[in-house]
Design a protein that fits this description.
Length: 727
């Protein structure tokens, strides 16, 4: 299914830097976040052609292919299917990798972009962009519009599709798994479809139609990971391609969003704390754009439209959390904004969806998920508390004004469909086979008291029948940057670990976004050490409540999460036995002082400016992982880096690894004979993306490292993986 625009909140992820962050796609934390922002997902069962058969990917949205029936009953999980055997003489982890690479198509669905328009469904079939009539979407009766192999790319896939209003053209953005580069193709729809044009390095794009019924394509161009330019193009006899807007401030980035009713195309200009929005009339795209409100430092706002009114999600005013406001479309300035709906404290706005008579808010409050349905005719509000197992939303493609569909997921449970039906005022859930994980595992919502007394939420998973949890291995997850939530989308290997007796703990520390904007503000700039204190408190609280012990505790972090993970290894290494890092940001000081790097200027609001502010420089020195390495005992560390990663350059990771190894060896010499030196492993993966999330080789190496460091039997994890792959 489509992971649609996360209102504009997900746009904060567009400029994720070399330090990066990860996000749901949720893909989303860290690749090009335009990719996540516009990714139209279709879960569809079919036979793959060569270019997809060879693609080493386990979709994080992989799930069963159930019948699409719904009921108002309580949560009904998915049933486990039959199991198959593997050759017994293979090494356990080689079996794991082999199984991942040969998973049957009957058990998993392949994620592809999809969009519905004018009675047709447009999607990827094998290596082709195709369309079929809506009622025939699940059949083999489709029309091939373009063969991706013509682009001469390695394992290409369609990331996003947009159809022109009158269906004369379709545009699709093409990417590859191991690169952030993208190509936008425009195909003319006719009896003989033909590619009309192609554009490199496109981030966001949308169609509108002018007064003369001509299709106009707006798109943003990304250069050196920066998205500052908006272009406008037409095709056919009146072909043109012109730059429409350029953002001059290098700390801002630009993306496009078409309002739900297609009335306005919005140009959104943002950095991490401030935004500015311009409106392009969807009926008169050649007219000058209209400014809603000039950027005000610290004020974020995002815009939807309905019945000549603008609905504005903004943090303006007190408290400085998001609230919903509205104003007439012809008087958009901030002095005309009227308060419409206020969120509770400690609430994260995940998404907003606008309908003819309703506005739906997807919320996270005190670490639990809610849906608020606001009646626009009578200002009524219905708040729906969602199942406690749910940890994340996946937004669904929605062209039906009567229903609001979405999916819920957790790290150990595949997505489950829900639909809110406005006419009935009820939330319906998908019925199907029972998922055994609902009976064999528990999810706990805990809190740890940080050094300053702040309560830090944690989400913990473990097997229901586990005895003596203090003797079980623990895998702690942390991120804590950019106001982004810790990724809690479904991951097959996480489920495998829980099935094998592991405890998983997700620590929602300050600097992330789980409790709203203030939670982020309390963990950035000169408050970054709050996140480190939170992480220490979480691990100590877990141990104190009987969840594992230091000798069985491991930590994992990705990208900017490497800052807190690396800082913990310097300050409290005795809390951990081992750690895995992926594309980690480890040298904050030198990176933020190097303005030649493509995204340093965009990151000043998060980390500070050590080049011009001595206070920022000295504060960064206090926690920067690279700067604080010293001869002492460290946990064993497995680092996965990517050869051509532009967001977290390989050079910095190599420097960190070499310095850490020197400190470890110096400590070993000082300690003398009998000291068990920790393993420091740097695994450099080929490719130019910030992460290849579903690499079987990477997943296998990381799990194998954890088992070996903790001295655990690897046979059981292989058995659990077999069970998982069959449900």
């Amino acid at each position: 299914m489509q992971q649609k625009t996360k209102l504009f909140l997900q746009a904060l992820k567009y400029s994720i830097p070399h330090l990066g962050k990860c996000i749901q796609k949720q893909h989303l934390n860290h690749c090009n976040f335009a990719d996540h922002y516009y990714n139209r997902i279709k879960l569809k069962k079919y036979h793959l052609t060569k270019c997809l058969q060879n693609k080493p990917k386990i979709s994080e949205l992989a799930r069963n292919i159930p019948s699409r029936s719904f009921s108002c009953k309580d949560l009904l999980p998915i049933k486990q299917g039959n199991e198959k055997s593997f050759s017994e003489n293979m090494d356990a982890f080689e079996k794991v990798r082999a199984k991942l690479e040969t998973q049957p198509q009957e058990e998993y669905e392949i994620i592809n972009a999809e969009v519905k328009h004018g009675g047709f469904v447009y999607y990827q079939e094998g290596c082709c962009l195709v369309r079929s009539k809506d009622e025939e979407a699940d059949s083999d009766n489709y029309e091939v519009l373009f063969n991706l192999e013509e682009l001469k790319l390695e394992q290409p896939f369609i990331d996003c599709i947009r159809v022109a209003p009158d269906e004369k053209y379709v545009a699709a953005k093409i990417r590859t798994e191991d690169s952030e580069a993208s190509t936008l193709i425009v195909v003319k729809l006719s009896d003989q479809p033909v590619m009309e044009a192609s554009f490199p390095n496109v981030s966001s794009f949308e169609w509108v139609k002018d007064e003369e019924e001509e299709d106009v394509l707006f798109y943003t161009f990304q250069r050196n990971l920066r998205c500052h330019d908006v272009y406008r193009a037409t095709f056919g006899d009146n072909k043109r391609n012109e730059r429409f807007y350029t953002e001059k401030d290098p700390s801002y980035f630009v993306f496009l969003y078409l309002t739900k009713d297609s009335r306005f195309l919005t140009i959104n200009i943002m950095n991490k704390t401030t935004s500015e929005v311009w409106l392009i009339d969807g009926l008169s795209p050649w007219d000058p754009p209209v400014l809603i409100q000039k950027r005000i430092h610290g004020v974020l706002y995002y815009v939807e439209h309905r019945d000549d009114e603008l609905y504005i999600l903004t943090n303006v005013g007190e408290p400085t959390e998001f609230k919903l406001m509205r104003t007439a479309a012809d008087t958009p300035a901030i002095m005309n904004w009227d308060l419409f709906f206020t969120m509770k404290r400690n609430t994260k706005v995940v998404d907003l969806d606008m309908f003819k008579d309703h506005c739906v808010l997807f919320l996270k409050h005190s670490n639990l998920l809610y849906v608020n349905v606001i009646g626009l005719a009578d200002d009524s509000v219905r708040s729906l508390k969602l199942p406690p197992w749910a940890c994340g939303f996946i937004m669904d493609t929605n062209s039906d004004p009567k229903n609001c569909p979405f999916q819920l997921c957790s790290p150990i449970r595949p997505p489950k469909y829900y639909t809110y039906k406005f006419a009935e005022g009820k939330l319906f859930e998908e019925t199907g086979h029972e998922d055994p994980i609902t009976k064999t595992s528990r999810v706990l919502r805990l809190e740890a008291k940080s050094k300053d007394g702040k309560l830090v939420p944690m989400t913990v998973f473990h097997k229901t029948d586990s005895e003596d949890l203090q003797k079980k291995p623990l895998l702690v997850h942390v991120y804590g940057a950019y106001g982004m939530d810790l990724k809690m989308n479904f991951r097959p290997e996480r489920r495998v670990l829980v099935d094998d007796g592991w405890i998983l703990a997700y620590c929602h520390v300050r600097g992330g976004g789980e409790l709203g904007l203030q939670w982020h503000a309390d963990g950035r700039l000169t408050k970054k050490l709050n996140g480190l204190a939170d992480l220490e408190a979480c691990i100590k609280t877990l141990h104190g409540q009987g969840f594992s012990q230091p000798s069985l505790t491991t930590l994992t972090a990705f990208s900017a999460g490497g800052v807190l993970a690396g800082a913990l290894c310097n300050s409290n290494p005795e809390l951990l036995r081992a750690m895995t890092l992926e594309a980690p940001f480890l040298d904050v000081l030198n990176t933020m002082m190097d303005t030649t790097l493509p995204l340093t200027l965009e990151e000043l609001e998060e980390w500070g400016n050590p080049s011009s502010d001595e206070k920022h420089k000295n504060y960064i020195k206090r926690y920067c992982p690279y700067q604080n390495i010293k001869p002492q005992h460290y946990p064993s560390i497995h680092i996965t880096a990517y050869e051509n990663d532009e967001r977290v350059p390989l050079k910095g990771i190599v420097s960190y690894t070499e310095k850490l190894k020197e400190a470890v060896m110096e400590h070993a010499k000082e300690t003398g004979e009998g000291y068990q030196t920790p393993n420091i492993i740097l695994d450099i993966q080929p490719g130019g993306n910030h992460v290849i999330e579903d690499s079987h080789k990477k997943i296998t190496a990381q799990i194998k490292f954890l088992y070996e460091e903790l001295g655990l039997d690897s046979t059981s994890v292989f058995e659990d993986l077999k069970k998982y792959l069959k449900f």
